[in-house]
Amino acid sequence: MRAVILAGGEGSRLRPLTCDLPKPLVRLCGRPAMDYILDLLGNAGVTQACVTLRYLAEEIQQYYQDGKYKNIELEFIVEDKPLGTAGGVRNAAADFNDDFIVISGDALCDFELSAAMAFHKEKQAIATILVKQVDDPREYGLVDIDQDGKVRGFIEKPGWSQAFADTANTGIYILSRRCLDFIPRDKASDFAKDIFPQILEQGGLYAFTGKGYWCDIGDLTSYMTSQYDMLKGRVDYGLTGLRNDGIFFRDAVPMGQYTLRSPVYIGEGVQIGNGAVIGPDVILDDGVTVGPGARIVSSVMLQDSYLGENAQLTGALVCRGGVVKKGSSLFEGSVLGFNSVIGENTVVGPGVLIWPEKQVASGLSVRENIKIGKGPQITLEEDGIRGEAGGDMTPDQAVRLGAALSGAVKGAAIGIASDGSNMAEALKNAFSAGVLGAGGEVYEFGEMFTAQLSFAVDYCAVSCGVLFESDGVSGAQMVFPGGQGMQRSVERDLDARLSKGDYPHCLPSECKSIRHMSGMGGVYFEQIKNMFSGKMNGVRADFISTNPKVEAGVRRLFSRLGGIVDSSLTVSLDYGGRSVSFIEGDKEILSQERVQAVCALISFEKGKDIWVPRSAPRALEHMASSYGCKVNRITDGRGMSRWVHDGIVAAFTILSEAKTIEGLKKLICLLPEFAVVSRVFPAGKPAGLMGRLLKEAGSIRHEDGVELSNGTGHVLVRPLRNGSGIRIIAEAYSVEAAEELCDGFEQKARSAQYPM
Questions:
Q1: Exposed, middle or buried: residue 507 (CB in 10 Å: 0-12, 13-18, 19+)?
Q2: pLDDT of 148-203, one tens digit each?
Q3: Distance between the two ends of the chain, CA-based, in angstroms?
Q4: Nearest to 552 by CA among 660, 449, 437, 446
Q5: Is residue 345 helix, strand or coil?
Q6: pLDDT one-digit tens code per residue, 295-340
Q7: Can you tell me whether residue 744 is helix, strand or coil?
């Protein structure tokens, strides 16, 4: 007897299990599903089988590389194009002369096929469909049959109101040679949709109700359930190896002191640590390692996968080569793909699918699928959160960020704005929903740049501000405006909530409304206009920025103040309007590092103290002493002098005082000789390095880092907010000297004294 095995499907509903594996090779209790089908066919007297292939065809050919399984000769036919169930059979059975069996290579079944074949011959049927009575018919194609077994019609995946039959089409058919005449050559066609309706009209279509077990392994739930059924003896397939009260050992019993709760299947070369508790309903395939104290219930671990110490699996699937590190947990319906790694103390929530060869960081709570990238590893940069739009930075991620930040600021008001791009607007709106859903209050400032939002946050006294920006291609970011970005206490709370998935929710009665404050952008420019009214008449300058809105806005304001747009002196502003430099012709005459010094000088000449970040130049103290003024170094950006983090205010402060290029140069000449060099380099253990620095003589520790001074200059060292490295801010009397300070410190850090 001959058979056709349909084995070309992609198994998309089984992904990520089938991302690197064809569906017929998915393992059921230590063996590929297709092995069980071949055993079923062999018991029915089949000696030759044609196997139709398409998706990952070479994997199946390699597995059955001898072209034989026990007493069955195998012929592989690779389809160049999809031909459907019927088209594939027509192609494979072209030279068949007798009745034959068609069966899928990815089902689990113990039907008596010989009885079905006898029925087929008795009825002289053109085609016989094997059917199975099911409890819930909604996910199956149903076959309506009369008392004689003759097919009367079909019902495709009905709702309960249309389900007037309970006999499901199993996809197993017995066909006569005549059936092939109904199937077009080299054309895609399907039995249930295209061929059987034609045979039904001629009265040659019958159905045989199978007795026994049948499961279409079409999705992850049925894949797991079918194996539990095998362990419980519901399938008439003998599991090979030793048996002991519902425990199946493919090979020797693993060494160790652990607990097994039946039913459990344990493959070859499995290692189990002391104190582990395994079962019930657990499959440990060949080469699996289970660490000490681990817990596994209703789960499957495929070949060479690893579960770390005190880790837990509950209703989860770990694919071949998957690694779950110490203390992590995977819950119901979650899947870890081929060669993917879960870091320590990470929780993978119910139903989360992690695609093959992904890395998930330690200490996270993963609540959504990870198909690209490395999972939700949101990290705080120096002034915000950056990510790939559509990857790390998505609207659904923004909802969670909003809820987490609202929790971190204890429900206080949060000001939000965007740069006006479509993606930034989408992220802002989603973030707003997260804040509101957590019971927080939102001040919606509309379209702004960073300096504007920083002003609006101070003006409206909200807890913090978040600006959404997008480059319109792939990048997106959340910027926290202000002197040093987000307060460290809020940052720590936010980071903890993101890593643990701690997103607060409020009752409907507690949900607040949005306060729309889109007019604050105009208030910002109006306030600067009032600050410099009557001080810009006749001043000549031009303004440029990478942000067209910043450039247009400042030019318009400058003109309103009586300034004359002239390119002899160019003021260059960054995208957010926060930093500024001055250019004459093609030469920079005042760098952004020295702008603060000029603004400080202007304040000192008026007898005013200043408030600056700790990273501001130390030369400011030298200048202040000459005027009897004070430099206040603080961490909270809200209390800093306005020109520190507002490039437009800084530019207008300098222009209103200097008036001309010559006047600007005179101000510059009053500055002491100093230069600042900032450098970032990676440090594997920044905390350890900072601790060693504190042992240096004269070192000073504060929230922003560690300060050191020597005879040539001053160095501020602080870890990056994302923990990936260290920033060195060196100040000396010249650029060369500051560079030497950076070089010397970096050399120390890379030495044995400061291991990186």
A1: exposed
A2: 889 888 877 655 555 567 788 898 999 999 999 899 888 888 888 888 999 998 88
A3: 70
A4: 449
A5: coil
A6: 999 999 999 999 999 999 999 999 999 999 999 999 999 999 999 9
A7: helix
Listed residue (581, 579, 529) closest to 554, CA to CA: 529
- What one-letter code names the amino acid at 644? V
- Euclidean distance between CA atoms 36 and 24, whole angstroms: 10
Q: Which amino acid is at 323?
A: V
Amino acid at site 687? A
Q: Name all domains of the chain by residue range, CATH numbers in brackets.
A: 2-216 (3.90.550.10), 240-366 (2.160.10.10), 384-520 (3.40.120.10), 532-669 (no CATH), 675-750 (3.30.310.50)
CB 398 within 8 A of CB 414: no
Buried b (16+ CB within 10 A) or exposed e, 710-723: eeebbbbbbbbbee
Residue 483 has pLDDT above 50, yes or no: no
Mean pLDDT is lowest, of 204-213, 674-683, 716-725, for 716-725
Residue with tokens 């009053």: 670
Q: How confident is the model at residue 391 (pLDDT cuts 50, 70, 90)?
A: low
Q: Identify the residue with better confidence: 621 or 397.
A: 621
Provide the CB-side half-sphere exposure for 160 (13 A, CA): 2
Angle (CA) 454-459-465 rounded to 5° is: 40
What Å distances lie between residue 264 and 221, 285, 313, 439, CA to CA?
18, 11, 14, 47
What is the reported pLDDT for 148? 87
User: Is residue 448 within 8 Å of 481, Cβ to Cβ?
Assistant: no
DSSP 129-173: EEEEE-S-GGGSEEEEE-TTSBEEEEEES--GGG----EEEEEEE
Q: Is the pLDDT of residue 212 over 60?
A: yes
- Return phi, psi of residue 110, to 5°: -130, 30
Tell me the chain's radius of gyration from C-alpha atoms.
Answer: 36
What is residue 580's predicted lDDT score, i.e. its pLDDT? 95
In sequence order, the 6+-apart residues with CB closer than 8 A to the CB of 428 are: 398, 416, 417, 418, 468
CA 30 – CA 47 distance, rounded (Å): 24
Helix (H, G, I), strand (E, B) or coil at 121: helix
Tokens at 543, concatenated:
């303004």
Please, are residues 572 and 583 in contact by the beta-carbon 8 Å criterion? yes
Q: What percent of the chain has pLDDT over 70?
A: 87
Residue 37's DSSP bridge partners are none
What is the average per-residue pLDDT within 248-268? 92
Would you place residue 558 in the very low, low, confident or very high pLDDT band (cuts 50, 70, 90)? very high
Rounded-to-integer distance, Cα 614 and Cα 201, Å: 87
Please give the angle made by the CA atoms of 99, 105 and 111, to the nearest 5 degrees.
65
DSSP for 506-558 reads --GGGPPPEEE-TTHHHHHHHHHHHHTTTS-TT-EEEEEESSHHHHHHHHHHH
What CA–CA distance (Å, rounded) separates 756 from 752? 9
CB 577 within 8 Å of CB 451: yes
18-30 in b/e form (b: 16+ CB < 10 A) is bbbbbbbbbbbbb
Q: Is 597 exposed, middle or buried (0-12, 13-18, 19+ CB in 10 A)?
A: buried
Computed over every residue of the chain, the mean pLDDT equals 86
Neighbouring C-beta atoms of residue 186, cutoff 10 Å: 10
Identify the pLDDT of residue 752.
Answer: 43
Residue 403, class by beta-carbon neighbours within 10 Å (0-12 exposed, 13-18 middle, 19+ buried)?
A: buried
Residue type, 311: A
At 617, the pLDDT band (50, 70, 90 cuts) reads: confident
